[in-house]
Amino acid sequence: MQISLNWLxxxxxIRLFPKELVEKMNSIGLLxxxxxxxxxxxxxELETYANRPDTLGHLxxxxxxxxxxxxxxxxxxxPLVESSENISDVFxxxxxxxDLCPRYSGMIVKDIEVGPSPSWLVDxxxxxxxxxxxxxxxxxxxxxxxxxxxxxxxxxNKLRGNKIIVRTARNGEELKVLxxxxxxxxxxxxxxxxxxxxxxxxxxxxxxxxAVTEETxxxxxxxxxxxxxxxxxxxxxxxxxxxxxxxxxxxxxISFPPEAASMTASLLTQIGGKALKGMIxxxxxxxxxxxVILRHHRVSELLGVDVDEGFIVDFLKRMEFRLExxxxxxxxxxxxxxxxxxxxxxxxxxxIARFYGYDKIPSHIPVLQGINLEVNKRKEIxxxxxxxxxHEGFDEVVNYSFMDTEQEKLFKTGLDAVEIRNPVSLKASxxxxxxxxxxxxxIAWNVxxxxxxxxxxxxxxxxxxxxxxxxxxxxxxxxxxxxLGPVFWKREPEKSDFFHLKGTCxxxxxxxxxxxxxxxxxxxxxxxxxxxxxxxxxxxxIGFLGGLKRSIVNTYSIQEQVWAAEINLGSLLKKQPKPFxxxxxxxxxxxxxxxxxxxxxxxxxxxxxxxxEKLMIPYLEDYVLYDRFWGKEMxxxxxxxxxxxxxxxxxxxxxxxxxxxxxxxxxxxxxxxFGLNLRGGGQD
Amino acid sequence: xxxxxxxxxxLRSSFDEGLAQAGDxxxxxxxxxxxxxxxxxxxxxxxxxxxxxxxxxxxxxxxxVNEFKNYVAQKLEEYSKTLEEPxxxxxxxxxxxxxxxxxxxxxxxxxxxxxxxxQIFLLMGFSIEDGPxxxxxxxxxxxxxxxxxxxxxxxxxxxxxxxxxxxxxHTSPVQIRVMEKKKPPIRMINxxxxxxxxxxxxxxxxxxxxxxxxxxxxxxxxxxxxGTLECFLKALYNEKIKIRFRPSYFPxxxxxAEVDIGCTVCxxxxxxxxxxxxxxxxEILGAGMVDPQVLKNVNIDPEKYSGFAFGMGxxxxxxxxxxxPDLRNFYENDLRFIRxxx
Lengths: 684, 342
Fold this sequence. Notes:
By secondary structure, chain A is α+β, with helices and mostly antiparallel strands. Chain A is built from 20 helices and 32 strands. Chain A folds into five domains: 2-69, Phenylalanyl-tRNA Synthetase, Chain B, domain 1; 82-282, Phenylalanyl-tRNA Synthetase, Chain B, domain 3; 290-358, Phenylalanyl-tRNA Synthetase, Chain B, domain 1; 377-573, BirA Bifunctional Protein, domain 2, CATH 3.30.930.10; 591-678, Alpha-Beta Plaits (2-Layer Sandwich).
């Protein structure tokens, strides 16, 4: 809402520099976004709050400033030039929907000459950022921006039957609104009708046919109060929001319509019209002022400062609250009608705080009461995952949680994607079912900008629907392509490959203390054939990894092979990591045996590993595959595998003969099971 | 016998003297021959004399001779090594060549910032809580005192999934979830993603991070809100940052406040400042005393307990802190940008 300083001065003697005024306003919660000097005026852009419709007019802002500065509002006079006719003799208003229109006031001004507005009015209208239309329309706008009470002026002679009926629309009724659009009405909408048809959508917009034009001579002034919810539902349904509906849906001052009507009439008589005597004011159930009990001790209990009783009483009175002391420290407070937001004690305490000054409330640190210090498991796993991936050379990214239908088709995740009903764009019409789409986007972006190797990860939710229910799954995704690590002059830079990806998975699972993981070969629509693994933990699939399909990677115009993995962290969160247990370090020497086998290429490492582990060799501390090659002088279908076995006894020196025995057992088992032979004379 | 012992002593000092004078390999060889030659070596001769010593004393003297022999052999060995090795090794590697480095990945700036915020609140004794990103209308709005047709809902442009389900527009629903689950005292934060129906531009994005905070206990006041947030902001920025609390409105707090920090770019002196828009202040936090209706909604007696809540946009704060001009930079994931935060 724009506020003009000159306009404020109609209500209040303000003698502050703009900067001081802005500071004052900010301190009481009237936030000035910015301000500028314009044509001898200062225009402030005020940020208004949904609960303070009273500040949607200059009067409301002036009231706040008056209370804050301790100066009175000016007493403004709105004299009328009256004709001898009585309004009740010539016009009738019927309100059929009292709930939706609790008050309806109207006046008639005749013999107006519609034309350009006087210069003072043009200035006001321009200060609001609007263009002047004609004196009648400008006057109704002036009253709205002045008092926050919307006014509508009808061309009296176009209202059939000399009457207004406030009723709901009938099915099938239509109204051509200002600007020419035809609106189809429904039964839930409140309309202003004449004898025959609707002439305005109540509180939102007037009809074209009864609008004031250059030819208009006599006008009917409507100044009413409408139900906020009904106004809101209607404008949302027809998609037209106006300055009037913006105020009505937030709530207007029910005591004010007659005054606003006569202010309007007064201004219209100033441009030559004559007001009919009297006013129509349909207000069948006058509302009482809201009352709230205020306890002095609650003020300090909530604000943490003792606010003087004198201040409270003075200030609330200045704000037009009525106070009645019930007993020491307790008042019965009546709330002025223009404050639609105040209903409870806390609301009044906020008023006290606002004007007392937030800056005068002291700062204290609360005394800490014991709370259960629970470790946040999700944060714990997130911290560890990030730590490990940074260590492995992956950069962290954050992508939007959205995807489009193209991506959904490309990545066959098997998950039913969640749709957004009102997406910003079609590109963001679904919630993502995988993180890999985003990661590929990141790789494409960075490769196109000349980054040699891109290794990125993201933790976040993927979303899906299942049996009409919606789920979010906390997930880690990472992808890698191109050069690994910084260039080093001594050797060719290493390039990323599948085993870089797999090694990261292995190291991650170990670091998270989920050491009982395993991999199984499993086809996956993301990956090339024979190029994907499933990561399992205790019999449950918790992730997958592999070399992404060329057809997918091509979609992102990426030339190089990309390897990617996705791990379900949500599922890991529910699992128990291996509890830490210290085991003593053996003081005795170990025996190392390096053994090389010739194996058929069809035998997988996993099979050999399973076979060795099944033997349960007692003092086999560790073993690693340290070399693997084929070709050279070997048969085509063979491969050489070199293992290093480390045997160690925890409590004594292991004997060479014992190690010999274990070694024999391994060699024999592998020979029997897979026909593995020792290579070239066996052990080194 | 005494003679033999004296002889050993005398031989040792003459050996030491000879060794000290030996300057090259030849003189060392000569010295070796003089003492250790199998035929005429002085020690060989000593050993031969042993047979003249009485059997009772022979073991002791024999031991002394052997020790002397070992001594001589060892000294000669040591000395010959020093003669063989060059005294100074010449390293000719160019040590100014670049070192071998391993690359450590860089954190995303928003998550880096999020962690910094978490650390401060952990130090202040807060717990960290989670909440879902898909929320119900009840948690996102109604329980937070937004009636169904309230215009305040327009301030939160919402992405809907169904009539009742939406993507949370703020982290505040976690306040409700935590208060339903736990009894006071409560002291928690919840950092997380939130969503708005916004077309991306330099200051608006459809997804961003917020951190929510909530303290509920006996006797919590607005002064506590001020103290806690001042303490937090000073830890996040610095001791000298200017902080301003001004009245505001949120349906779920009463009284409500907006917290601004003084613009560190123009210090309030540039009316054209791009960072603060010329006001000298940057809006950083929304806060307030938990509305009594919100407490009632979770069955906490507002006459007995009180609390304060606050919410802060992490992206916006990070944007200001790192002086990043465009929020969209955070979600382009350009590694040249991200790696600066390593």
